[in-house]
Specification:
homodimer, 245 residues, alpha+beta, Arc Repressor Mutant, subunit A, Chorismate lyase, 2 domains, six-stranded antiparallel sheet, three-stranded antiparallel sheet
């Protein structure tokens, strides 16, 4: 198993296992025992147990008392979950397309009253505004506007770094890690501008997420406004009703 | 603490605690110790510990090593979460309105090919189709179409029972419990019919959830198609990036 620094072993094992399940268990089936999985992944049994707990919480596997652990085809088939972390290129690839970034435009602006309120700034404080358009096999699929306070930036950077996922920039240039994201889900009708950005007709329905990223010390870092072309990128959510521990 | 049968103590304690936090800690603040909470709620310390684990997973509280457990105002303020269980009347009340059911219409129909495929039926199998409109302080807010196979129904029922939440009907008349719900999130533009159901103008954006309810034995039970009037009912999602255990 490849080891990423900063990412707990159990999370990495869960990711590996999730990908295997998607490949080999897409129609369901019973998983091998923890020992077998541990030796296949080259990790400890304790790590496997934690990884299985993560996947159970995600609904990807089901444990049935006395009979074992099963892949859940009803959840495994979903490729974009609104309640799980993702990067835009991953989303596009998971939907079966080739991902690319089309346009990136960076502006230095003054925070509007609304932005200031959402990020805990004063109106007029300087912010970096990054516009990106993501392509799915050549079609415009996602239009993103990310805004972050200039004051967060701790070191010199090249403009090209802003084309990378914002998580990397926050980590490397702002020494900040994102702990969680609160996303407001808003249905929209494309106006002329949005229609052009996404290569669709005005009047088409669009899904908009208005997101605030919070740091590990619970401070707002970024406001992201994201428009997804429907049905090219379509989200799912999972609600578990009876799970407790 | 009031005791509901079938609902684990920790889940009930989490609900009580969540409501208290929403009332008393909406701007944040440090929680009292487990012992204090336990005696306030009249439950064991073990139950409090489990309840806190549930609330931590929901993002409602944050644990900071060495300093204690804190209410998270960024999450506490959210009243409709796409990743958490809800009933429509609860959603409406949480948004600050008075909830009522306006219309209920029940039809006996034959499953379409699409419905049959989604619920694991044969095309033409008999289904119950329940249309409901929910009001938020008198305004039409949610339009729901629930479809379930007639074959699920195990005992006689009065038509009026279908006005209650479908969970109750599934429990009492079908002896089925919902384990989880997979929800597809679709932005829509209201056509003439939808606009009339929701009391809005055609062309307005609408959020649609297309949902399959799965039983504790992982069988599909119900297809629900739900239209939410925006911005009257607006959903949020929480994505946690660094949480593991």
């Amino acid at each position: 198993m490849r080891i990423k620094p900063n990412v707990p072993m159990a999370v990495q094992a869960a990711e590996l296992l999730r990908n295997r399940l998607r490949r080999d268990y897409v129609n369901g089936g019973r998983l091998p025992g923890e020992n077998v999985i541990a030796s296949e992944l080259g990790v400890s049994r304790g790590t496997v147990r934690q990884a299985l707990a993560i996947l159970e919480r995600e609904g990807v596997i089901l444990r049935q008392q006395g009979t074992g652990t099963f892949a859940n085809p009803n959840v495994l088939g979903i490729n974009a979950r609104v309640d799980m972390a993702y990067e835009f290129t991953q989303l596009i690839e998971a939907a079966g397309f080739e991902a690319a970034i089309d346009t990136v435009e960076v502006r230095r602006e003054a925070a509007s009253a609304d932005l200031a309120q959402r990020l805990g700034l004063a109106t007029g404080d300087p912010v970096l505004t990054i516009h990106k358009i993501f392509l799915a096999s050549g079609q415009r699929a996602i239009y993103v506007v990310e805004q972050l306070p200039t004051a967060l930036v701790q070191s010199e950077y090249a403009e090209s770094e802003l084309t990378h996922p914002i998580f990397d920039f926050l980590d490397q240039r702002c020494h900040q890690r994102v702990d969680y994201i609160v996303s407001e889900i808003v249905p929209c009708v494309a106006d002329q501008g949005l229609a052009e950005y996404l290569g669709i007709e005005p009047g088409q329905p669009i899904l908009k997420f208005s997101e605030v990223f919070y740091s590990t010390s619970n401070a707002p870092l970024v406001l992201a406004t994201v428009y997804f072309r429907d049905p090219l990128i379509r989200f799912h959510a999972l609600r578990q009703l009876t799970t407790v521990t």
